Amino acid sequence: MPLYNNSSYNLTVAVALLFAGALYISLSSRSISNPISDLQHNPNTPKPIRDIEFPMDELEAVLDSAAAGNNKTVIITVVNKAYVEEVEEGRTMLDLFLESFWEGEGTLPLLDHLMVVAADQTAYDRCRFRRLHCYKMETEGVDLEGEKVYMSADFIEMMWRRTRLLLDVLGRGYHLIFTDTDVMWLRSPFSRLFNNGSLDMQISVDNNDVGAGHLINTGFYHVRSNNRTISLFQKWYDMRLNSKGMKEQDVLKNLLHSGFFDQLGLTVGFLSTTHFSGFCQDSPDMDVVTTVHANCCRHITAKVFDLTLVLREWKRYKASHVNNKWSPHVKCLGSWNDIHYVPKS
Predict the structure, then answer these.
(1) Does the predicted TM-score (pTM) go above 0.85?
(2) Which residue range or ranges hold the Nucleotide-diphospho-sugar transferase domain (predicted)?
């Protein structure tokens, strides 16, 4: 009698074949890698074009959010601890800055496109508390937390760090309006800035007298992102190495007067103080004034005091539409002789 019948033999062969197949697959999987996994982990594999050109890091994420629906244009200001802590009557410089957007004509929606750059953790936390678009600037190796009095070494360093950041923003393809936090936005500037689409850059001035050349002020300017402006900002930033003791504004002014703008083919407009006013030269016409800058002022306490008066007079103008003159900026005028002033820590 046979030990196996046909059905038993066939079953045995089938089981053996299945086992052999499973063993082959197991051994093969150890020697043949997953091509998709290799592609993801191979350091030589090219990254997608978008990742190379527009890495979605923290800065890109904040810029993308702030510029949404605004033709890739973002409003940028820089603050540190001194600008977010109380100075006069419980006010902070950041409070006044934001209040001007609330009180201005057509300015409130612009807060959606404002990116606040924080130079320290305190400023960043305060920005986040206010639910703004916030970015913490890299400040490794330097303390930018306290008040940086005009033309101090730390003041100059902060200005150069700011310039480097703005170069990065332009290099990512974003147009920008940079504004100091001591600029009150009383009307939307966009209609005036965009009247002439051919200009690469538009910048504020301390006064309208051009006899000695344009006295540009880097506290407020609009820049379109293109090869010319990126080249300008790169040259500007590189010149810090040979400009010890000079603030970035003076270096840019030298580039302008040296003809470097012309070499680049860069077109620039200068914003009249009639519309873009400042403490150096007040606008004579409240009916057309767009911004008011606390320039020609040495320290933050004086700025907050005099800008508080500016907002008070603006509210009075809105209620009456009587075109009055601005009050004298007494505190700022006296700030240059305030030898006992102690900067905010």
Answers:
(1) no
(2) 110-307
